[in-house]
Amino acid sequence: MDRELEEKNINDKKTEENKMGVMPVKKLIVSMSLPMMVSMLVQALYNIVDSVFVSRISEDALTAVTLAFPMQMLMFSVASGTAVGINALLSRSLGEKNFDKADDAANTGILLEIFSFLVFVIVGLTVVKPFICSQTANENIQNYGTTYTTICCCISIGVFMQMTFERLLQSTGRTFLSMISQITGAVINMILDPILIFGLFGFPKMEMAGAAIATVIGQVVASCLGIFMNIKFNKDIRLSLKKILKPKPDIVKAIYGVGVPSILMISIGSIMTYGMNKILGKFSDTATAVFGSYYKLQSFFFMPVFGLNNGLIPVLAYNLGAARKDRIDEALKFALKLAVCIMLVGTIVFELIPGTLLKVFDASDNMLEIGIPALRIIAVHFPIAACCIVLGSEFQAFSQSIYSLIVSLCRQLLVLIPVAWLLSLTGNVNNIWWCFLVAEIVSITITVISFRRVNKKLPI
Prior knowledge:
mainly alpha, 19 helices
């Protein structure tokens, strides 16, 4: 009886404390998303700073990081997609006041992420070198890329644990703590980058190996902090080694029911990046470096929108479980306006100062000649992308990630890569960049159709 009373008190406390069902929606979206948007901005800044230091080694080194990016994105897709499945199941269970199921989602999810890490250790030891070599014949770039990617894969435990424990905090509304974890990892990475790359303060000069080691150290520290904060402050879930080691098949199925489409959706981005590297590589390694630089720069605007998206998903999932359609609609409208405003700023910046942005990476005259028109052409699609991201958050929150997968598949594989290849046949590398706008127009069309279909089937 004492234990039952104790658990009842804990559940009552959870019900009282969770803000996702009672706080005014606009204030809730800001409180949930702002910490993640800030942390995503720091993450974007880290991505840029990391590439800035690498570019000081050589343009070959910057190109090597671009060639490594598809593998890193694949690793991220598995970690993030699984975390999305955990997030959706956990938030919905909390909305339904099913706290035992929420605990099972958290504990089972941790084990799934550990298994994913072990898979990438094998990938790092066997697949990385042929993967890098398939994208370039430049031996120097091959060596740089293989070194960097192997280290990132074989010591990727930090990626999977950081993603998991940050999402557990986000799922229960503790986005400020999630922000602390992510910022800590990014800041440590930025501090260690110049020290390990160039051999400062008595450390050996490790160049590309140093960049990779700085990355994985930052991830491991962030994951350790995430573990601590979940145990210490996240009272909505109870982590248990016993539950971690005894996963429930129905929970695994529920997590991957949402997670697998999300994994595939983000993995498509990895395939797209690989395809673009191959297409651009036929023109020059510099064109590939421009594409990599664009991805780093665009993250400064896309990352905050993804942070908004991450804050929106648990709000939508919770209020679906609580049968509050009015709060769902209000949250989507507010988030959509905010995302479009952020992306409009990005478009303006890319149009006005593309050369200044590229010079951050010590761009050569040849890189500027290719890169300035590239940034201006690509940036046109930013506001459309904002709409797709926000509307797509409903698919993930409502366990309808198959629609996100369809949108992503059409945009990045069935449209973007074929269009890029066709435009490359003109012999003018500048024409290739228009593939982004074409793909985004197709994407928003499919997103709106899918969004209406999902809303018609809501059980509320």
